Amino acid sequence: MTDATRERLAWLAVPAVLIGVLVLFLTVGRSGEPRPELQQVDVSEVLAAADPVATYGSEELLVVGWYADLDADCVPPADTPAATTWLTQPCPVRLLLPEQPAQGASQAALEAIGLRLAAPTGEPFPPRSQPAGWNVMLEPTVATGHFDDPAAADCAPDVLAFCRATFVVTTTDGLLH
What is the pLDDT of residues 54-103, one digit of tens each? Predict the structure, then answer.
């Protein structure tokens, strides 16, 4: 075998070895189940659960859906108590919806099909794109949070189930990964 032939074989072996290493990494990296903390749940799955608190408990979830913020458009019920907690405040209404809603849908219609969101400070939510009117994101949003927040224990008995079933958001990300 000549030196030129050995050199050609060496140059052919380098890409073959690199491809083999890449295939090995991909095979090992895909083995097993994805880590639970990285699994995203579609909001329609959460809404399909008869009792999200019983189904998911207080475990952290990554829920994917269309975010809607009805701050300026929110109409609180007439019987809203003056001393409401952040979990029971009727406005702003922040929801995660299974699909992008039709422009101009009513607050009641959105609340009927969406997952209610809350946060102690309100900071993890995406900023409003406009000061008044509809504020619906242009792409699905990933909301990280949990049900059955410890603060629900402070809710009045008649709204305790409502407080426990509110999805408490810790972070949001507008980009699906």
Answer: 999 889 999 999 888 876 667 776 666 655 678 888 778 888 999 887 77
Q: Are residues 63 and 13 in the same domain?
A: no
| Domain enclosing residue 67, as ranges | 36-173
pTM of the predicted model as reported, rounded to 2 decimal places: 0.72
CA distance 68 to 72: 12
Q: Which residues of 48-86 are buried (b: 16+ CB within 10 A; e: fewer)?
A: eeeebbeebeeeebbbbbbbbbbbebeeeeeeeeeeebb
Give the pair of three-digit tokens for residue 58. Answer: 């207080």
Which DSSP string do the residues of 57-96 spell out, in sequence order? TT--EEEEEEEEEETTT----TT--SS--TTT--SSEEEE
